[in-house]
Amino acid sequence: MASFLLLLSLLDAIFLAATFSTASPPPEIQINVWPKPTSVSWSDAAPIAVALSPSFRIPNPYPDNPYLRAATARYTRLLHAERHVPLRPPPLNLSSNAPPLASLSISVADPSAPLVHAVDESYRLSISADNSSSAAELVAATTWGAIRGLETLSQLAWGDPPAVPAGIRIEDRPLFPHRGLLLDTSRNYYPVRDILRTIRAMSHNKLNVFHWHITDSQSFPILLPSVPDLALRGSYGPSMRYSPEDVRRVVRYAMRRGVRVVPEIDAPGHTGSWAEAYPEIVTCANRFWAPPDGPALAAEPGTGQLNPLEPKTYDVVRSVLRDVAALFPESFLHAGADEVNTACWEQDPVIKRFLNAGGTHGQILETFVNSTRPFIVSALNRTVVYWEDVLLGSVAKMGSASMLPPETTVLQTWNNGPNNTKVLTAAGYRVIVSSWNFYYLDCGFGGWPGNDSRYDRQIADEQGQPFNYAGGDGGSWCAPFKSWQRVYDYDITYGLSESEAVLVLGGEVALWSEQADGSVVDGRLWPRAAAAAEALWSGNRDEAGGKRYAEATDRLAEWRQRMVERGIAAEPIQPLWCIRNPTMCNMVQ
């Protein structure tokens, strides 16, 4: 399937050679498509724009395909309704001779291909026009590639009434198969409408994985049929829970937009909220997180971890995982395993006796993983995803990588930038990259714990303890703020050998929600997540191998403007004056 478009190109090479030039488009012709397509070529004739017919339609040749049926209807409505006026319109003259474009023909090689990891998302979109006719054709390997092509067509249209470029051919495919966004709905609750809007924005940016970090120590907001008390007692209240129907609605909505929903149930750490229903399986629950007479019991306020030495723990965990697998058809299931706090475990007398007898924290984690991982892989038929800590944690970590077979395990990095990615790929693991140095979108907003006297400094910080001044982090552990440029410029395979680089599935930007909820989510995510979307789809380098952040600036400003028009409250990246005065806002002219 991956070679489908190549084969098709060989079959119609004569036609294409007669119609299109293989040269790159002239520099002055800039189309406003985000993420930037892999390949854009133009016909030998002078490129023009043609009007979109008032009766423009997208016939669906696959009426039994519900996803393509929904997509063709959705994009037909968008193309007719949207009247986007670019800040800098493409330099194309509207043809007075060519007839308006009346329809788009679609051809899909494998319309039944399911939405799974590494599904072929390639497509080819061509629009031609002369004095007698105008035509547009979308050819894709799968339904999901066709949806990506429809998004591209929608972004090509501009003006009132709308027009599209003619004499253009776009051949496009993603650089990485996993292009994701993590949203934490435990620290603060997000109404379903905000999750759906986020997924819609993802589809506009060709992101294809919504990593739903559903539960954490602060709340357990998902209502599961087998263990309902976890949400009834562990959520923030009746209006802040996700019912099974809510989950099914999110999954359906995402599927129709080519977005996979990967659920995460983080354990054994980050499980304080479970103690509201099952206190007997959680250690150090509801303690002050940073006691003055001992080590911290959690990385942040909200203590509690599952007890791997308590047999009942596994009855509850298996019920949770079974219900989650029934609600989410996705083949990846994220099982967390990050930031296990050893001091928290040591509050339990059974664990303390185990440690005093010569046992280790690593063995306790191994007990949990070895008791849950086979259930996920064999009984639930899922590929299990863990955070890197399961192997690279400072104290509590698996003693041997052989306990985590790479064939059924994916690891997600978040520390030490490219270094941890290299360690894990060198060990043979498939990796999803979420390095906080680049991809954490919650960084740089200051601290959130209360009664912190460090902010009360009128002139300078305490000697040798920068906080508000002289490079201090202002209470944000992962400061500074990750600008779109920082996100865009991350090379997630940096320093890897060729054999290691192929194990990088892709990346995910992450929004941890200690200081975010639905009222601010759009601005926190966009357009910075869009910067990651382009880097993961077509890369962050030009044809000569140089970073293209300079030319991306104006394009992202344009795209941000269009996202706002589409109901996504993306933050501006510059004054509008900058895009109207090219190069005048650069650091170096």
TrEMBL record:
Active site (catalytic residues): E339 (proton donor)
Q: Where is the Glycoside hydrolase family 20 catalytic domain?
A: 176-539
- Catalyzed reactions per annotation: Hydrolysis of terminal non-reducing N-acetyl-D-hexosamine residues in N-acetyl-beta-D-hexosaminides
Pfam families associated with the record: Glyco_hydro_20 (PF00728), Glycohydro_20b2 (PF14845)
Gene Ontology molecular function: any one: beta-N-acetylhexosaminidase activity
Check the record and name the InterPro entries matching this protein: Beta_hexosaminidase_sua/sub, Glyco_hydro_20_cat, HEX_eukaryotic_N
Q: Which domain of life is it from?
A: Eukaryota
Q: Which GO terms describe its cellular component?
A: membrane
Entry protein name: Beta-hexosaminidase
Q: Which residues form the Beta-hexosaminidase eukaryotic type N-terminal domain?
A: 33-156
Instruction: Report the EC code(s) recorded for this entry.
Output: 3.2.1.52
The signal peptide, as residue positions, is 1-23
The GO biological-process annotations, alphabetized, read as:
carbohydrate metabolic process; glycosaminoglycan metabolic process
**Which key words are in the record?**
Glycoprotein, Glycosidase, Hydrolase, Signal
Family from the record: Belongs to the glycosyl hydrolase 20 family.
Checking CDD domains in the record gives: GH20_HexA_HexB-like
